[in-house]
Structure formats: structure tokens, C-alpha cells
Amino acid sequence: MNPTVAVSRRGARRLQGGHPWVYRSDVEDSDLPAGPVHVRDVRGRFLGCGLWSPQSEIRLRLLTSDDVTIDEAWWAERIAQAVARRAHLVPGTTAYRVVHAEGDGLPALVIDRYGEFVVVQLLTAGIEAVRHDVLGAIGSSLQPAGILLRNDASVRRHEGLPLAIEAIDGSVPERVEVRVGTVRYWALLRTGQKTGAFLDQRANQQLMERVALGRALDVFTYQGLFAIHMAHRADSVLAIDSSAPALDVARANAQLNAGGPIEWLEANAFDALRSLDDDAAQFDTIVLDPPAFAKSRNAVSAALRGYKEINLRALRMLAPGGRLLTCSCSYHVSRARFLDMLASAAADSGRRIVLERLVGQSDDHPEVLTVPESSYLKGALVRAD
Description:
The protein has helices spanning 9-16, 72-84, 125-128, 131-142, 202-211, 225-230, 244-256, 269-278, 300-317, 335-349; strands spanning 4-7, 21-23, 35-41, 46-52, 58-64, 95-100, 109-114, 117-122, 146-151, 164-169, 175-180, 183-188, 215-219, 236-241, 262-266, 283-288, 318-328, 353-360, 378-384. The chain has 385 residues and is α/β, with parallel strands linked by helices. It is globular.
């Protein structure tokens, strides 16, 4: 029998409003160990079952409003439901997110598939406490050739948990060749960003494969996936990143796709954009996909200045009829503020800029309307008249 946690009226309203988190200030003091708990309000009414994290500011994460046993079979059923929601993915896609934590109703759990292998993140003490059941459910539901735990996310420190990378089941290689639509690339399961690759940009990469024309520019290219997609249609692509190891992987990825008209440039993105702008360079297609500029609320103002600088220079360099895809993965920069920044950059560029499409994270990273934390990637495709 799981222990019971009582939440305040405010905490109960939050849960009933569709958000699964309850903060420390809205639960009764308790010395319970991490793990599954029953949740009740101050009147004793049952609210559901969740996971308790005794050292976290977010003490409780609700899993379900039903009175059920949270065991391996329960996890397996929920993972199978997440898999079914991804049945529509592009045929041949072998790298995608299977479980997007709160986006799939499984807080603090991330599961990404890379071919025959899966990479898993357990991000809180609550879910770490049921690791055996979760990993057993992953094995039975997904039947991978191997499971790698990428428990190296810094958020685990706030939970009092160690950071580690460990293979759990099977032999997991350092890198795996995967396919997304027409493009193949290497996912670096132990050393790549996130769990091995940026899976959240898949749909936007495929979008740029369809619309890229002429001379293209890919800034913050990382491992080159936007550049490789655009090279299918563009006459040439200049891909820029400050990391030599990332560009080495990008070149290897390009070789998997018969190369293409891509020039790789190791440079600071801000310096490179400034130099290209000063030289009056013109591009028909530009992608700006920077890392998160705002890791906290306090960094938002500086982040918006950085976003404006790179977007203003990109807009100045867009040829008539050219397209810019610009993105932000900073959760703390809202979509509204990002678009305000882009409008300001458009005005300062002296160009007439038309919004063609708003974009976000790929749909294997579902966004729940009542859980804003499930949505972080935002962007826009614009055209210069």
C-alpha cells in the first residue's frame, strides 16, 4: 500500500486544472521516501497517484487520477499507448521520441528510440525509485537490442541524484546510424546533445528540405542535419558552427547522404554573421537554430538581444523572395516575445517580411495546453519580399 500525501487547496486546484506538478509549499511536510504515493486534498478526497520527490522544489508529480497500482504492468501499458500515438510517423523513420515526459502523461520520463536501441532519462528521485519497473516495462514494450540510461541531465542534481551514463540491457554502441525520411545520420548515444541527437527539429528539417532554394546558409549547424536536408534542393549550402567535433560528425553525416554542395565553416556564429553582413552577402534560404540563449528567467532580456542581433543580420542578407527559418529552444522566451523580437528585427532591417508559417517541436514531442513546460521549441518561417 502506497503512503498518502495531502495537498493544499491551491495544489488540488492545480492538479484538477490539468497540471501534474505540486510544489513544496502546497504539500504537507513529510519525511516520506521517494516513490509512488496516493494523493488526497485537505478534506481527504482522493485525487490520484503520483511520484514523490523529497528534495525537489516540485515535490509531487501526478501520474493518474485513477486509483490504480503503479507497477511494471501500468508503465508498460502507458508506454504502449505512447508508441501507438506515434504510428503516423514518416515511414522509414528510425529515430524519434517514444515518451515525452509530461507531454505523454509520464512526468520525468524521456524515452528516445535510435534504431534497435533506446536511450532513457529518469529525471527525478520519484521515478528513480521505480527504476526497476520502468526499465522492465521499456524492455517488454519496446523490445530494444539495448537500453542506455543518459542520466547526465543537470536537473537530477536538484533531486539529490548522481549524474551517470550507463548501459542497462544489452551492448549499446557509441553511435548508431539512423534514418529520418530521406536523410541518414549518426546518433552519438553517449556524447551527443540531449540523448544523442536533436529529434525535436525533425519536421522543421523536412520542411526546409522542401522549400530550400538557391544559395543556403545554416547557422549553428551542430551535426549538419538542416544543411544536409537543404542540400537536396539548394544550389549550395554554407554551414557554420563553432565546434570542430560537431562539424566532424556533420561531415560524416553528409558522407552518408552522398555529400552534397555543402561548405563547412568553423566559426563563432555571431562573428560569422557580422562578417557576412558586412560583406553584403546574400542568401536565398537561411536557417537559424541556436542553442538556448535563456537558461533562466533572469537571462531573457539578454537572450532577446542575442536573438535580435542574429535575426536582423539574417534578414538583411535574405535575397528578394528568400526564406528564413528562425527558432528558439529557450523555454523562458515565450512564443509571443520571440515573435515580437522578430517583428522588431524585421522593422529594423528595412525589408518587408511576410510570415509564412509558425513552427514548433516535432509531434513526437507533444505539447499539452495545460502544461506549458511541455512546450519549449518555437519558431517561424518568413519570406522577404
